[in-house]
From TrEMBL:
<dbReference type="GO" id="GO:0051213">
    <property type="term" value="F:dioxygenase activity"/>
</dbReference>
<dbReference type="InterPro" id="IPR026992">
    <property type="entry name" value="DIOX_N"/>
</dbReference>
<comment type="similarity">
    <text>Belongs to the iron/ascorbate-dependent oxidoreductase family.</text>
</comment>
<dbReference type="Pfam" id="PF14226">
    <property type="entry name" value="DIOX_N"/>
</dbReference>
<dbReference type="InterPro" id="IPR027443">
    <property type="entry name" value="IPNS-like_sf"/>
</dbReference>
<keyword id="KW-0408">Iron</keyword>
<dbReference type="GO" id="GO:0046872">
    <property type="term" value="F:metal ion binding"/>
</dbReference>
<dbReference type="Pfam" id="PF03171">
    <property type="entry name" value="2OG-FeII_Oxy"/>
</dbReference>
<keyword id="KW-0479">Metal-binding</keyword>
<feature type="domain" description="Fe2OG dioxygenase">
    <location>
        <begin position="218"/>
        <end position="320"/>
    </location>
</feature>
<protein>
    <submittedName>
        <fullName>1-aminocyclopropane-1-carboxylate oxidase-like 1-like</fullName>
    </submittedName>
</protein>
<keyword id="KW-0560">Oxidoreductase</keyword>
<dbReference type="InterPro" id="IPR044861">
    <property type="entry name" value="IPNS-like_FE2OG_OXY"/>
</dbReference>
<dbReference type="InterPro" id="IPR005123">
    <property type="entry name" value="Oxoglu/Fe-dep_dioxygenase_dom"/>
</dbReference>
Length: 371
């Protein structure tokens, strides 16, 4: 008998436990975690149970003392002094936190709210309707499933997801469910515009010309991942999303009012509380790689919760698993004799294939590509 302890609860795993069969049975329902909740599950299946985390949980004092920067983008186009101050804030946040929030970013609150509503509408569709869209083929124009790494990760997460590439080749409208179609297309256009501005600020923060990262192709591809975290009967035993860093250049995240997002800072889990109208921005692994560790891609997670459903919309600037031959490595202008390249040149496809193969196992994908 194996016993794994969480803070207050022990999970007993019987010797004859057949994890593979439980995974397949869950996947075959095509109903995701929401299907378990709809069925009235009071005890989470063992496949969702996580081992205890070794890092400290933030105290109330930690969360006051350590909070990710909130950067106001108001008047960025009107005043060069304000822009310089914003670039300085972006630089400091990207070098020390890997995370920051932006306000006055130009996306109307009404669009943010409708985007969250659109995600709710999709997941509230009849199960039989959603089953037709359930797939593990990552190259389909619209992918809906539960846990992309279901068969490779050490433990499953209490989360369902749909994803869709929104740029440079948006899907045919008929490939996107009506429940979220119009708003997903509209919101993605807003995020692309914001992303281009953010890459300008990040370029300037690296001491490069404003268009350097955009000209490298960092802002060309956009992938929308829309997550649904149902209320969990035993949140202390599982996770909404396991500790991980993002496999992209940059992430623009819209979270709802429920919260649960945490960032690992100084070996302590710090809450990122929802800020009305704000968007959470974080540096991805590929931006850490091309900046040669100047900017940091930081591990983060989402807690499971008795309260729900929680929704979030993560927009990844990434080519994902698309077979794009372009190589990315440390930017030459940032290198010197004292600062040699720390990573080898890679394609995004190679990086993401490794990311998907290992799943959210708590180990940095970047380690695999260090020189």
């Amino acid at each position: 008998m194996v016993v794994s302890d969480t803070d207050e609860v022990s999970v007993v795993i019987k010797p004859d436990y057949d994890r593979a069969s439980e995974l397949k049975a869950f996947d075959d329902t095509k109903a995701g975690v929401k299907g378990l909740v709809d069925a009235g599950t009071a005890k989470i299946p063992l496949m969702f149970c996580h081992p205890p985390d070794k890092f400290k949980k933030a105290s109330a004092l930690d969360n006051i003392q350590f909070s990710i920067p909130v950067i106001d983008l108001k008047d960025i186009y009107k005043d060069t002094t304000i822009r310089k101050d914003i670039v300085k804030s972006v630089r400091e946040a990207s070098e020390t936190w890997g995370f920051f929030q932006v306000v006055n970013h130009g996306i109307p609150v009404s669009v943010l709210e409708e985007m969250k509503n659109g995600v709710h509408r999709f997941y509230e569709l009849d199960t039989e309707v959603k089953k037709e869209l359930y797939t593990r083929d990552q190259m389909k124009p619209f992918v809906y499933n539960s846990n992309f790494d279901l068969y490779s990760a050490p433990a499953a997460n209490w989360r369902d997801t749909f994803l869709c590439y929104m740029a440079p080749n948006p899907p045919n409208p008929e490939d996107v469910p009506v429940a979220c179609r119009d708003i997903l297309i509209d919101y993605s256009k807003h995020v692309m515009k914001l992303g281009i501005l953010l890459f300008e600020l990040l370029s300037e923060a690296l001491g490069l010309n404003p268009y350097h990262l955009k000209d490298m192709g960092c802002a060309e591809w956009l992938l929308a991942l829309c997550h649904y975290y149902p209320a969990c009967p035993e949140p202390e035993l599982t996770m909404g999303t396991t500790k991980h860093a993002d496999n992209d250049f940059l992430t623009v995240l819209l979270q709802d009012h429920i919260g649960g997002l945490q960032v690992l800072h100084k070996e302590t889990w710090i809450d990122i509380p929802p800020e009305p109208g704000a968007l959470v921005i974080n540096i991805g692994d590929i931006l850490q790689l091309i900046s040669n560790d100047r900017f940091i891609s930081v591990e983060h997670r989402v807690l499971a919760n008795h309260v729900g459903p929680r929704v979030s919309i993560a927009n990844f600037f990434s080519t994902g698993l698309q077979p794009i031959p372009k190589l990315y490595g440390p930017i030459k202008e940032l290198l010197s004799e004292d600062n040699p390249p720390k990573y080898r040149d890679i394609t995004m496809e190679e990086f993401n294939a490794h990311f998907y193969e290992k799943g959210l196992d708590g180990i940095s994908t970047l380690l695999h590509f260090r020189i």
